[in-house]
Amino acid sequence: xxxxxxxxxxxxxxxxxxxxxxxxxxxxxxxxxxxxxxxxxxxxxxxxxxxxxxxxxxxxxxxxxxxxxxxxxxxxxxxxxxxxxxxxxxxxxxxxxxxxxxxxxxxxxxxxxxxxxxxxxxxxxxxxxxxxxxxxxxxxxxxxxxxxxxxxxxxxxxxxxxxxxxxxxxxxxxxxxxxxxxxxxxxxxxxxxxxxxxxxxxxxxxxxxxxxxxxxxxxxxxxxxx
Amino acid sequence: xxxxxxxxxxxxxxxxxxxxxxxxxxxxxxxxxxxxxxxxxxxxxxxxxxxxxxxxxxxxxxxxxxxxxxxxxxxxxxxxxxxxxxxxxxxxxxxxxxxxxxxxxxxxxxxxxxxxxxxxxxxxxxxxxxxxxxxxxxxxxxxxxxxxxxxxxxxxxxxxxxxxxxxxxxxxxxxxxxxxxxxxxxxxxxxxxxxxxxxxxxxxxxxxxxxxxxxxxxxxxxxxxx
Amino acid sequence: xxxxxxxxxxxxxxxxxxxxxxxxxxxxxxxxxxxxxxxxxxxxxxxxxxxxxxxxxxxxxxxxxxxxxxxxxxxxxxxxxxxxxxxxxxxxxxxxxxxxxxxxxxxxxxxxxxxxxxxxxxxxxxxxxxxxxxxxxxxxxxxxxxxxxxxxxxxxxxxxxxxxxxxxxxxxxxxxxxxxxxxxxxxxxxxxxxxxxxxxxxxxxxxxxxxxxxxxxxxxxxxxxx
Amino acid sequence: xxxxxxxxxxxxxxxxxxxxxxxxxxxxxxxxxxxxxxxxxxxxxxxxxxxxxxxxxxxxxxxxxxxxxxxxxxxxxxxxxxxxxxxxxxxxxxxxxxxxxxxxxxxxxxxxxxxxxxxxxxxxxxxxxxxxxxxxxxxxxxxxxxxxxxxxxxxxxxxxxxxxxxxxxxxxxxxxxxxxxxxxxxxxxxxxxxxxxxxxxxxxxxxxxxxxxxxxxxxxxxxxxx
DNA sequence: GATGAATGAGTTTTCATTCAT
DNA sequence: GATGAATGAAAACTCATTCAT
Lengths: 226, 226, 226, 226
Description:
4 copies of one chain form a homotetramer.
Chain A: H1 23-41, H2 48-55, H3 60-66, H4 69-93, H5 99-110, H6 118-131, H7 135-138, H8 146-162, H9 168-192, H10 199-213, E1 218-219, E2 222-223
The structure holds a DNA duplex (21 and 21 nucleotides).
C-alpha cells in the first residue's frame, strides 16, 4: 500500500487502472495513506500529492471524499484514535474482571506491541503537535479518554478500600492520574528513544511504583490477583 | 491546516523604523518570533512571512542570518531547549545539595510556572511532532537530557542505599526513569487539559508514588530532608 | 469570481427518485437549470455540478444530451432567444395591423413584464458578456433580429410616407434603428437600476421621442391610431 | 504589451529577465493584461496564467499586488471606468459651455473612436455580464454616472426653458434618460454588429430624435448653437 | 439508456528563496 | 549589510469529462 513518493517508477508500465474500490474502501485507503505519510515524512510534509501517490488514487479523490485536506487530516486523527481505543477495548474484554487484572491489562496493553509502536507513537505526537492549531484534531489527541479513566479509577477505588486507605477515592484518583501519566511518559520515552526502549522495563517501573502504593496488590511483575 | 497569516495589524501605521539591531539581536528576535508563531498559529502555519511580521524585521533577514527557514526552526528548537535547561540549572543551583532536595527541586521546578506553562508546552509538543521528520530537531526535543538524568539517578542511588535496598543501582535507575516519565506525563496532561491542570495535584501525585518506594525520604508534600 | 456550489440543500433528503423523463424533457430541464444558474450565481460560476444539482438529474446527463457543457450553454442561449421571440410574436399576433399599432406593440411588449424582467435581463447580459468569446453564442445574443427589424421598418416607412417625409426609407431606417437602440438602452437601465426602473417612464420617453419625429402618429401615451 | 498565450516562442531566447518595474507600473501592467485577456479570450477564460503570460510577469505578482484574482478583476473594472470617465471629462473640458454644446460633446464623445471601440465595448459588456454575480464590479459597470447625468440634465433644462416647455424639468428628465438610453443602445449595436456600425449614422439618429423634441436647438448634424 | 464515482488537467493560491537596490 | 519586490515551484482545490456498472 505504501509507495514512496520519490520512488521513480515501478518498472511494469502502470497500466491505466480504472480499478474501483467501494467508496468506503477509498476513504480508508486515503486515511491510511495519510497516516503513512505522517509517519514517514511528517505532518508538515504531508501534502495531498504525497497522500494520493501513496494511496495510488487520483488527486480529486481527496476532495471527493473529504472535501478538503483538513477534513481528511481530522478523519485520520479520528481513525487513529478509534484504532487505539478499539484495540484496548478488545484486550480488556478478554481480561479478568478483578480490579488488579483490569489495571494490569490496561498497563500491559498500552505498552504492548499492538498499541505502542513506532507508527502509533509518531502519529499521536504528530497530531498533538498540531492539536492546538486545529480544534477538530484536539478532541482526538487524548489517549486517555473519560471512559478508560473511569474504569481504572473504579478499579483503584476497590483496591484502595481493600487496602484500608482512609480516603480511598482521593487515593484512587491520584494513583489513576499517576498511572496514566506514567504511561504517557513511557510513550514519550518510546518516541524519543525507541531504540533503547524496553517494554519490560517500562512495565516493571510502573508496577514498582504501584507496588509502593498498593503493596498487597501489585509487585514488580504486575498485579497480584488473589 | 493552513491559516491566513495572522494579520496582527497594529492600526497605528508602525512608522518605518530603520533602527538597526546587532546581528545577535536580530537572530534572537527571529527565534523569539518563530516560537511565538508556533505557539499562536502552530508549526505548520509558521511561515517566513508570519515570522518576519512578528519580528518586525525584513524578510531577507531569515536567510541572511539562518540561511533558510529550516535552520531557523532548528535554532528555535535549540533555543527553547537551552532556556529550559538553563532555567532548571538555575533553580538547582539555589537548591540544597542533599539528594532528596535535588530530586524535589527537579520535580517542583519542572512543574513550576517558569518551565511548565502554555507557551513552553506548545513549543515542546510542536517540535516533538516534527522531530522524527527533521533529525536536527530531534536532538533538542528531549527535555530529559543525560546530565539531568545522571544527577537524579545519583541522588536516587544515595537514597536507595540509605534505605538499604538490595540492588540500589537498579532500584534507582527504575525510580529515575519512572519519575521522569511521570513528569513527561504531567506535561502531556497540561497540554491536553491546561484548564483543569493543577500543579499541586501533579506534585502530590509524584510524591505519593515516591513515598511509596522511598517511604523514609518522601511524603505527599515532597522530600523529607533529615 | 468562483463561488462555492450554491448548496441549496433541501433538508428533507430528497428521496431517490428514479422517475425517468423523456429525452426531450431532460434536455429542457438541463437548459432551464442552466439559465437558473446563470441568473442566480452568474455565468462564470455556472458549473456542471451546479446545473445538474438544480436540474436534479445525474451528472452524466449533460454529456449524454449535449456532448459537453459548451453545447449546453449554446442551447440555453438559443432557448432564451426563442422564448423571447416567441413571446414577442405572440403579442404581435394579437395586436392590430396598423403600422402604429405594430410599433406600439413591439415597444410595450419589449418593456412588459413578460420580456423585460430580472431573469431575462441577467440572462441576456450574461450571454452578451461571453458572446465574443464564443461564436456560437453570438448568434443568439441579439434581441433585435432581422425579421423583427424588417417589420418595424416597414411600419415606420408607411408612417413616414403618410407624414409626407421627403425620404421616407431613410427616415424610417433611422427611426427604426433609434427605437431599437432606445429599447436596448432601457434594458441596460433595467439591468443596472432594476429597483428604480419604471416601465411607464421608459415607454413615455420612447413615445416622447417618437412623437417628436412622428407628431401626427405618436404622443406620450403611445400610438395615435386613426 | 500584448502577447498571445499560445504564441509559442519569441525567437530571441527570452533572457532571464529580472527587470523591475515600479510597483505602480506592475499593477498597471497586470490590469492592462487583464483587460486585454477579457477582450481577446473573454471573461471566463481569463485565468491568472493567461494574465501573467500577457503581462510577462511572474504569477506571484497577481497575489503580491492584488491579493487574489478577484481583486484584480475589480481593479480592472475600476480602471476601465476611470479611463472612460477621464476621457469623457477631457473632451468636455475643451467643449463650449453652452448647453447644446455640452450635449453634443457628450454624444459625439461617447460615439467617438476614443470611447466607443471594440476593446472598450467588449470590456464593458464582459463586466456587465458578471456584475450581478460580483457586487464589487457592479459599481463600476455603469457608464452613465450621476455627475454626467446631472450635467446633461442641467443642459437639457436650460434648453427646455428656452423652448418654452410647460414642464421643463420633466421634459429634460425624459430627454436625458432617453439620450443616455440611445447611447447605451448604440454601444450594444456596436458590440453585436461592429462591422456594419457607423458612428455617423448613430449620431445622426440621436440628433434626429433630439431635433424632434428640441427643434430649435438640434438638427440632424448636431447642436444648433446660437 | 442512465448513473455518479473517478480522473487529472488546469485553476487559484501560498510561500521559501533570490537578488537588485 | 539590509531590504522587500520579485520569482516560480509546489501547494490546495475545481471541475468538465469519462466510463464501468
